[in-house]
Amino acid sequence: MPDLREISVDRPVSEKIEEMKAKKCLLDGDRKAYNEISQFTIKRNKEKIKTLRKENKELRQKLHDLHMKDEAVINKALKDKPTERASLKNKTGQEAITILDHKVSDGMRLLNALKHQVAVKEKQLRNMQITYNEQQQASFLAITTDKKESTEAQDSLKWPLVLENLEKEIKQSLNEQEELQSMYRDAQLSKENALKVLKKHEDMISHERKKREIQLQELKKEAEEKRMLHDRIERRFNAQRPSFQQQDETASGEKQVLSGEEQQQKISTYEEAFRRIKEATGVSDTMEVVSRFENQGATTAHLEELKQENEKQISLLREEKVKLQKTFEEMKYTGETKLSRGQRMLEEFQEKLQEEETSRAEIENKLEKMSKILLQVKSGIDHLADRLSHLKTPKGYTASTKLSPSSNEYVLDQLALCEEKLLKLMDDFHDVDLEKVQKQMEDEEFHINIESRLPAYNTRVKLSTQLENIYAESESSREDEPEVLSRSAIKKISQSIIDAKMKKDMPRRRKKTK
Known about the structure:
InterPro entries: ODAD1_CC, ODAD3. It comes from Octopus vulgaris (Common octopus). One of its GO terms (biological process) is outer dynein arm assembly. One of its GO terms (cellular component) is ciliary tip. By secondary structure, this protein is an all-alpha fold. Among the domains are: about 175-240 and about 260-345; about 440-460 and about 485-514. About 85% of the residues lie in helices and about 0% in strands.
């Protein structure tokens, strides 16, 4: 590529001049355009500055107005607080509100702290008040206890006299109670006697009444018989009346001296009287009527005598009743005051009796328990003596005299005997291996248990140990040889082993199934 310097050198000067002129013209145009643009921008910026200054002035005026309004509100709100008003000078409303909020929050925090301090102080004051009250109560209790101790010490000197007086009053009240009880018994006896007398008189009066009723019934019966007789006579009279009328006519002819009306009146009165007499007595004959009237007078006199006697007895009984009532009232009102003390003492003695009865019941319960325990001990000692009865009595033991089995000495004797036997047993088994003996006993029990389980047809066959020498051995050697297990014994042992294994395997199978 060719070099530019070489190309520029190769061009002519006129072209260079023309080029330079063109560049100059371009530069002048650019300068003019730049000047015009800069003048336009300056003009536009001046106009913008003017408008901004105007807007700034308006905003400043608005801000001033707002400041004036906020200052007026603050001055009005903080009229009585010049220091706070001076501190909030040249501040907006929002700034003043935030400052006041901060101050209020600081005041609230301070108020809460002061409230907390006040609550703590009040709590301390309450605690101090409680302690003060407790101290006051303690001092008051100490003073009262001192006073009580002093009064009790003074009273303790008086108690013997008070007890003596109380004992005297108790004895006096007991005597009064005995007197009242005797008076009450006498009153009861007099009352019973009076009731017996009254009952006797009532029985006598009722007997007399029954007697009079019987007599009245007899008289009524007799009157009824007389009435029936009168009816029969009247029927006969009515049958014979015509003949009587003829006789009356003849008699009226003879007695013409009397006037007819008077005679008629007399006849009517006589008839009426006779009729009433007949009705009253039940008799038609005049002689019977006269005898009846005579007898009636005697009966009335007898009844009057009985009436007077009964009235006298009734008056006497009433007087006795009044006297008994008076004595009863006197005993009642005089005995109530005496009985009050006796009743009080009786209640106290009843309370003591109740306490003694409760203590007696408790003692009885204890006695029953102890007796039950004693019976159990006796039965246990008897059982132990029965279990040890096969043992011989030791040589050093001396038996006491024969005692009754129900006595306590017999139980003590049995207990001492059992103790001696047990001590002898312990001495005998001192050198014996008890574990071995116990194992042997368990084996024997095991074999007995197995044999009891075998059926009846499974019999045991004894076999000799050595078949070769069976005839050569003697009887003594057979007895000395140990017994060999038979087939049945082997069966029993194997069966017991199988049963034991089955019992052991059963829980395992159950666990597996679960």
